[in-house]
């Protein structure tokens, strides 16, 4: 009797241990990170910096694949054709909301499992030189009466949506001017062709140096590159969304695999060379996992989706 | 002065020199493979620089930048396949020279013109960066629009034979440039639900298809079965830098390098336009414009001195303003940033020795590029001895690797093959492929800036005509177009008289 029980228990344990073992030794093969943008861009450089420390934490190879095109649409669509086993992941950011909102892709936000947020950077309202303004207050006073031109990186991009959100919150009249990328928009503001831009700190930090440079007047969040710039919320304006980068996989990943990812990422972000790279890139290390992360993604979706849909309908 | 000595101290380190040499070598190799552009060469090397000191990593990336732009000329001359977008114009006269048995001479001309262009570009970068950057910033929507229109006139210059056919090919390029999301409203145009087309037709698959795949197809059709090489014997004794020829062409070099530096310095204009503009200008200045396109060294000099000067020009806004001039410098700037070196005005104040180190490394990279290529000419020319039945499959393989390697998209491979078929028929019926590429590049520049201008100027289109730079460029465009049409009419009348 005792023997039978042990045998049954052993079999039961064995059955339970089978799939569990497969998840517990995750990863035992190469992990692929799909970067939905070209090699050498901001996202790519960030992932290349993470690659080494992550390999150490996982004890396996980590491969980085660039699948660019359509402002991220091609790479993200391609990611979803993979099994939800945690071996193929991609880099989520605010473009997830804007691609869905513009109707440019045929996936939904919950087609992905969000595993982590690793870094963030705010959006900064940065203005060209003018006698009409010197700070946020004087700019708002002016722009309530006279329409101003604000540039950003691409129609339907997250910087476009944030320009809308900022114009809304400030109650000013804005002509929205899409550029091909952040550097083109910055150059246009430097040349006085537009009144200002809404971009990341790393896009504008060099342009605020020197004579006739731009002035960052308000930011949606703290930035180590622009420590002295006031936040919108300091002036009672409620715009707080940050750009972010993290890890996401096709939906349906086992909890044990997600746990393994979290453990590895928590170890990788401690790496000194990674932290140095994050510092050099001018983004903030702000890891977030689990329920807090899900809430963060939900908040982003609540802000970006309706605004993007309003742009798409025009 | 002490800053310059400090900079010399940074560079005069065997590890730094090896990094510059290695970067230049890899750049040359990647530039000469169709599909791998300068931007890609730099991007591939960035992870390698992670463990290096700043000036060592920067030297390697700058070497790759110079090498890739110069290396693009090799397949352009030998095989009629531009290795990078900026060597499209190099095919126009380089390949006919190779066909005449002057491949060695063509390479010698191209390599030394590249070197001179690169060095003059570097000198202008060192001496005149701030005023050039200030001029470049004057380019707003109206000026970009005018630049685009001015560029479209060049189609008349680069269409071999019939201008009407050239214009048809150019219009085709313009039409293809409308594919993708509308630059102002974001509405989808002709994308057919294909995510890869949202941001428009990528230049690379179009370029590789039109020039490389079409060339392979032509070869297959031309020699179905019989492998009879009917090429002129190659004259190898001429594979030396023809300094005398270059000295006589000083006016071409002067105008091409100035155009290269200025167009390179304008953020958003795109480096590949400069070689077209220089080629066009050289043809206009020439006493023998009819020789252009038939294997005329001046055309080759214009294209190659200009595209290498563009590299120096593109570094100007990056170093002085922190705004990259075009794609390759954008990637380069990312590479510098991750090294902890943030280009911009503050870099001059705080780490001037790094800036001067960049200047020196850039000049050294140009020297390395010259020496390596001169040593390699005899090796490069051997490509022509490879039987086409082996060479053509190899070219096709590199095309596929190149296009797939950049964006990792299968759709773009199909796009490449479609453009290959298109290019094959365009060449067969005398339309040419260079105007299509020019239309594709200029179409989006012209359209997005016209539309952007209408937003910024609040619907006042007269701004496009009233702003000084814009008015000058548009005026020149009309003048040159009139000149071309007049010349055509005169030619036709003369032909009539001759036949009568």
UniProtKB/TrEMBL annotation, chain A:
Keywords: Receptor, Signal. The keyword Signal applies. It comes from the Bacteria. Residues 1-22 form the signal peptide. Belongs to the UPF0065 (bug) family. This is Tripartite-type tricarboxylate transporter, receptor component TctC.
UniProtKB/TrEMBL annotation, chain B:
Pfam families: TctA. The chain crosses the membrane at residues 20-46, 58-78, 106-128, 135-158, 164-184, 196-217, 252-277, 354-375, 395-422, 429-445, 465-486. Residues 17-438 form the DUF112 domain. It comes from the Bacteria. Keywords: Membrane, Transmembrane, Transmembrane helix. InterPro entries: DUF112_TM. The keyword Transmembrane helix applies. PANTHER family: TRICARBOXYLIC TRANSPORT PROTEIN. This is Putative tricarboxylic transport membrane protein. It comes from Tranquillimonas rosea.
